[in-house]
Structure formats: C-alpha cells, structure tokens
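User: Structure with flavin-adenine dinucleotide, tokens only please.
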Amino acid sequence: MDFSLTEEQKLIQQAAKDFAQTELLPEVIERDDAQRFPEQEVKKLGELGFLGMMVDPKYGGSGLDTLSYVLAMEELSKIDASTSVIMSVNNSLVCWGLEAFGTEEQKEKYLTKIATGEVLGAFCLSEPEAGSDATSQRTTAIDHGDHYILNGTKNWITNGSSASVYIVIAQTDKEKKHRGINALIVEKGAEGFEIGPKENKLGIRGSDTHSLIFNDVKVPKSNRIGEDGFGFKFAMKTLAGGRIGIAAQALGIAAGAYELALKYSKERKAFGTEISNHQAIAFKLADMHTEIQAARLLVYQAARDKDNGNNYDLSGAMAKLYASKVAMETTVEAVQIHGGNGFVKDYHVERLMRDAKITQIYEGTSEIQKIVISRSILQ
Ligand code: CAA
Ligand code: FAD
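Assistant:
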C-alpha cells in the first residue's frame, strides 16, 4: 500500500498542524479545566472548511477525500481531542449521512449550513438502555400521517447543546424490530425538545455531552432520512465511516503524547545523562514509535478503502480497535516518561491520557469492534 501523500493532502495536513498550534494549543488546558466549549475555535474550523471536509462543494463542503480528513483529525487530536471530536461528529456522523441518504430538500435546508459550520449537527443513537445494544431503541417515533410524534431520552450526545440540527434514531414499529427504526432530523427549539445538563467527564472535557429529552415532539415526515425502516441501517452505515474518524483521533492522541515524551526524554537528565540514554526509556520510545506507525497504516488503509469505494466495515473497525489501544498504552507510557511532571496539567500528557480512554468507548466500544471484526472474518 502506497501512502505517499498528494500535494493537496500535504497542504491540508500542514494547515491542520498550524491551526492546532496557533488556535488550539494556547488555551487547551484552561478549556479542559473549565469544561469550556471551544466556540471561537470551532467557528474558525468552519471558516477553514474543516467542518464539511468530504461534502460536495455544491452543498458548502470542501470536496476532499477521507484520507485528507483523517490527516486533519490526526493533527488536531495531537493537541486537542475535545475540538477534534466536535469536528468528527459534524463531518462523519452528520454531514456524511445527510449527503449519502438525504433528500435534495434536506441537503439544501440542513447540509449546506452544517458543512460550512454555520450551525453544528449531532447524532443521537445512544439511550440509557441502548448503548452497545443499539437495536434496543426505546425512543419512539409514532407515525401520524404527515408527521411523527417523538418520545424518549437519548444520552451521551456530543454537541448536545451546541448543535442546532439533531439526527435522532427512533423506533416506529416495534414489531419489525431493527427494521422498524427511523432516522429523523430534529431542530433545536422544537416544542417538547429539552436538553439535559452537561456531563462532567474524565476526558474530552471541552466537548459538550448531554442527554436529550423528547416529549411529544412533532417531526414532519419530510425530515425522515431514507425509506421507512431504514434508520438502523442508516446508523450502522454512518458509524462505519465515523469509526475511521475516531481511529484517526486515537492515532493523533497517541502521536501527540509520543512527540512530547520524545522531546522530554532528550531534555530531562537523571544519573548524569538524558533519560533517553537509559535503555528502559529508549525501549519505551521504540515501542511507542512502532505501534503508532502500525496504527497509522491501519487508519490510512481504512480511509483508502472508503475513498476507493471498497467495503470499510472491517478495516474501520480494526483501525479503531487498534489505534484506541495504542492511544491508551502510549499516553500511559508518556506520563511515565515525564515522571512527576507527567502527573500535572502543564505538561499536557495527563490530559492526553484522560482523553485517550474515550476512544475505546464511543462509536462502539472495543468489545463491539471485536464483534464487528470477528463476524466479518468468520462469515
Ligand atoms: N452496514 C449496513 N447494515 C448493517 C451494518 C453495516 N455496517 N451492520 C449491521 N447492519 C444491519 C444488519 O444487516 C441487520 O439488518 P438486516 O437484518 O436487515 O440484515 C441489522 O443492521 C442488525 O444487525 P445485527 O443483527 O448485526 O445487530 P446486532 O444487534 O447484533 O448489533 C452491533 C450489531 C454491531 C453490535 C451494533 O448494535 C453496534 O454497532 N453497536 C454499537 C453502537 C455504537 O457504535 N454506538 C455509537 C453511538 S454514536 C457515538 O458514540 C458518537 C460519539 O461518541 C462521538
Ligand atoms: P454498555 O453497552 O452498557 O456497555 C458496558 C460494557 O459492556 C462495555 O465494556 C461494553 O463493551 C460491554 N458489552 C456490551 N455488550 C457486549 C457484548 N455483546 N459483548 C461483549 N461486551 C459487551 N452516543 C451517541 O449516540 N451519540 C454521541 O454523540 C455520543 N457521544 C458520546 C460521548 C461521550 C463522551 C460518551 C461517554 C459516549 C458517547 N456516546 C454517544 C455513547 C457511546 O456510543 C456509548 O457510551 C457506547 O456505545 C457504549 O454504550 P454504553 O455506555 O451503554 O455501554
């Protein structure tokens, strides 16, 4: 597999790197501490064209490939995974599904605004009783002719309060099980739609995660995405691509921690020499470097599969499973290499370690990725 980058991909990578250094780094610790949403930073991401990277320019997007998106996710995540998850949800879980399966009217009304970053989107599948077991949807969307009446609770929703457009998965016909589920576009401010309090999280504390409550919310039928009963397949297809974005986020977190640890190991002295001269530290760096490169190859391969029109369920799941494991292990070792300094906020690695954990949980836990992978290789 040749992963040599085109000139355009290199430019995107550099633009993301510069943005992360100049716009994200200066206040990343304060935002994490205060759980402050990166409002201005996200606005600038929109101006850069990073909130609808793969969307056709006729709908306000940048018309780039998945590999460019992955490169940008990787660079941003080295510095600030809170901002990168906001970008990831908007690109992979909202724009992609709307462009792939939305009607022309839905694309003109919603996609154009979301792809430019004028408004943000959210993707609402998880519920208190339906996380990994996503077919067990309790939220109902009852058919009333020209509209649905939506009732239920979604939880853990990224961009929960900052979004204006929500893609909500709900059960219309319980008898039909997962084939009776629909995906509906719900606007913020709809009567009966409430946003719960913000979650106080271990990591990605700058992103806003909320429960959403729907009490008899009227949703026009024209806001359904795809045919009646397509909602679960819609969610699965959307998540297959979303997992590539989160894999890139995990890769970036790992690479960011490694770069900090490498630099620190060449500056910090113990027993009369730089700690990188102690083989125990040098070997940690060797493992980190090797595992990050292996993760990178899996992530780029999944992106290539998507760009080449190949099936990416398996490669995306493998990339997410492996890159998230590498993110967790690398960040723990980066803290170790920093010694006591690793345990305080100023050196960034403790935040990267806290942020790494979520990549093994959201968009399908590592156990769920193993279900997807094992089913694929056994079928
Ligand atoms: N593409 C298309 N269709 C798919 C599919 C895919 N990748 N995967 C499954 N399906 C279809 C199946 O074909 C089946 O439909 P038919 O019966 O019509 O053929 C239907 O979906 C049900 O599939 P399964 O029988 O495999 O369902 P299951 O109950 O065994 O569950 C699962 C499968 C993979 C475990 C799934 O429930 C799952 O992915 N769970 C994890 C949920 C998840 O990832 N949530 C993330 C929420 S979003 C988020 O987290 C965002 C964020 O943090 C930022
Ligand atoms: P559970 O499904 O209860 O799982 C608990 C444990 O059991 C896990 O270790 C799991 O792997 C394991 N387990 C479950 N079933 C099996 C099985 N069959 N075999 C083996 N092990 C199993 N969701 C959205 O819809 N939209 C969002 O924007 C979103 N953002 C999120 C942001 C954050 C910060 C968080 C924490 C979550 C977010 N989620 C979102 C929800 C996330 O996708 C779920 O938390 C995740 O899918 C796991 O579901 P659960 O929390 O209910 O755990």
